[in-house]
Amino acid sequence: xxxxxxxxxxSIGGIWQAAHDGRTFPNYNPATGELLGHFPLSxxxxxxxxxxxxxxxFARWRLVPAxxxxxxxxxxxxxxxxxxxxxxxxxxxxxxxxxNETQGDVQEGIDMAYYMAGEGRRLFGYTVPxxxxxxxxxxxxxxxxxxxxxxxxxxxxxxxTWKLFPALIAGNTVVLKPASDTPHSAQRLxxxxxxxxxxxGVVNIVFGSGQEVGESLIHHPDVSxxxxxxxxxxxxxxxxxxxxxxxxxxxxxxxxxxxxxxxDADLDLAVEGILWSAYGTTGQRCTACSRLIVHRxxxxxxxxxxxxxxxxxxxxxxxxxxxxxxxxxxxxxIEKIHSYVEIGAREGATLVTGGERVAEGELANGYFYRPTLxxxxxxxxxxxxxxxxxxxxSLIAVDSFDEAIAINNETKFGLSCAIYTxxxxxxQRAIRDLTTGILYINSGTTGAEIQLPFGxxxxxxxxxxxxxxxxxxxxxxxxxxxxxxxxxxxxAQIDN
Length: 496
Ligand code: UN1
Prior knowledge:
Elements: E1 10-12, E2 15-17, E3 24-28, E4 35-40, H1 44-61, H2 66-82, H3 84-95, H4 99-119, E5 126-128, E6 135-143, E7 146-150, H5 158-169, E8 173-177, H6 183-195, E9 203-205, H7 210-219, E10 223-229, H8 232-244, E11 248-252, E12 257-261, H9 267-279, E13 289-295, H10 296-311, H11 331-347, E14 350-353, E15 357-358, E16 368-369, E17 372-375, H12 382-385, E18 392-398, H13 401-408, E19 416-420, H14 424-433, E20 438-441, E21 476-484
Parallel strand pairs: 7-8, 7-10, 8-9, 10-11, 12-13, 12-19, 13-18, 17-18, 19-20
Antiparallel strand pairs: 1-2, 3-4, 5-6, 6-21, 14-17, 15-16
Helix pairs in contact: 1-7, 2-4, 2-6, 3-4, 3-6, 4-5, 9-10
């Protein structure tokens, strides 16, 4: 260790502690290269301890009445609001996205805290009439046990809260493994949970690599549920491994989300939505727009408006309020983005703007990539099919609404999609025919709110949803109770 950068610890059973073997890894600012801190490079022994602490805490936490659990989440919401600015700055420093987006990220956590806190007084089950007299039937939600949450770097507070808060309100306990590019935001979140009065061991955090910490969590016999958000490649691996062990898995992975602009669209409105959803968060959202499907009649007019706006986006350190687009997360990500730009050029797409790394002046030590647009993209090109996770947008021109729908539906993903049209009949067809988990009409592909289900079709996930009431399904098991108060044996399907 070379500098005075702070050294952080895992939280296991409510106690902050170093990894067993004392190893650490560094955390850097992607805008400046500055060393921010050191975090434990944990091993399977640390995971064992964390899962054990969560298992012990489960025995008590499941018995805490859900409204009481909710009170803790209300306090978490209050504390997240109080620390919002500070947390947003911490996040911008380690993740890169601009301050108003990191504030939005924390806000999603606040929203989720209050929403799930309220669930403490609902957590609805239901009763249904049964076939026999003097007998009742009801279904209620049971917690499952220890939940492993494996979270990505692009929403360092929001995504952990989408998993933790429903898991907690339902009575589960958690081991959180945050992405190693954004450990500090997750560390602060866990500190805040304990400040709000969470009992020891109910949430544990173990820092380290996917290979070691992630693998150990997936294989641990006392982990009952795995909730994963990240790349398709890693998600597939989690699914295969967890299937062997018959564990419940929720996967939220990639997207190749399209904005469809029809010939009757309000083009000025469309430009705003495209800019925000393609280049906001430097394109690093799973909901980011990376395909622009445009009716050929309006392509030139749209480009006239759009290209100068893309070129006017200011790159820089997200802490600077004049900046629109921050850096990408790390060296391998910027290489991946650039390699896709080269692939696009080789495939015959026309580069309209961008297509290069920027490393001059103040940007010299960061991972900055010029917002990029390709046109003349064919739907079967790799840049139109594969998730790039960066500020690269591919324009595909079409001759009809039918063609736009078909192209939208022909990727292996199905998270989000947007359509710009003023024709109410077309919006109804869009609702019916677009294969997508989330559809936006006359706004961009990002900005899902936490009270509605979040997730996608096809290769985006495995059928589960996060957020909203549906978000509880991953973390609860339905238990059905029949009570026979007739005082005699009644045989269902025979006596009735
Ligand atoms: C993600 O990119 O993984 O809808 C989540 C949105 C945000 C969440 C994105 N509320 O863009």
